# Entry
Amino acid sequence: MSLHVDGLRVYYRSLRGDVKAVDGATFDIADGEIMGLAGESGCGKSTLGKSLIRMDSRMRYVSGSVELDGRELPVWDDARMNEFRFGHVSIIPQYALSALNPTRRIGSIATDLLKARDVPVDRVLPELVRRLELVGLSEDVLHRFPIELSGGMKQRVVMVLSSLLDPSLLVADEVTSALDVSTQRAVAELLVEFRDRGFVKSMIVITHDLSVLYQIADSILVMYAGKLAEKAPADAVVHASRHPYTQLLISSLPDVGVRYEEQRLSGIPGRPPSLLDPPTGCRFRTRCPFAFDKCAEEPPFEAVGPAHAAACWKTAA
# Structure
């Protein structure tokens, strides 16, 4: 296994108490696997991704373990994680278009990154130029400031820099948001190409856009209110999901070519619970059309089929 996460809990401190953003996540990602991570805004998917590289000082590690290639990641210790960042586990951050220092040229940003990791710049520079050309950018980009690049160009620059040291795991957080449709497709295809070329071994692609994940992901993990709801091969999640939340999430997507007057979109009634004081039992039960008495107890996240796991008492029954 490339990645094994066991019982990970990561909270945020607030004046009103702990926000239980990731509350007991357990899952695996195999070598070469692209796993999509989906769910509503605020479900904890970005927190889960960032916790694997510990890039947010507001996060408070509570419990659990993370192993990458058989080696434990010290995700509870910011200083100790420096040894693993970008070389073992890397991230394309959310709002990547704003991740580049506007006062530094692209080449200087790349040099700073390499020096911070004690990597000889001269040794890596030819590979940096090669990868820029691979994503359709010329060497001239290294002499430009971020403001001189389009949104799609900046996104591709960040992708190259984040994967330049060939990390075992790459977390891509909302990489297609704020991009036009054609650029979204190009960026999504580049992620697959980075995996296929061996620039990264495994990948987590975080997005609320299930249509993107269906095209590029091998598996999809669905989160709801800080908990894992379902994980399965992408085709199974889209066409044979077992968790009611996943089913409603899929059914709320528009069909291509269907007009509003012919078929109105149906959302999921209700709102997710507050993660400051989440309810006991299944966190989806107040919105679930299949909820029954047993749902007052928390369902286990367990296998319901080959390479398919879900947390639902109805599924388990």
About this structure: The chain has a mean pLDDT of 90. The longest strand covers residues 17-29. The two ends are 30 Å apart (CA to CA). Residues 46 and 173 are 7 Å apart (CA to CA).
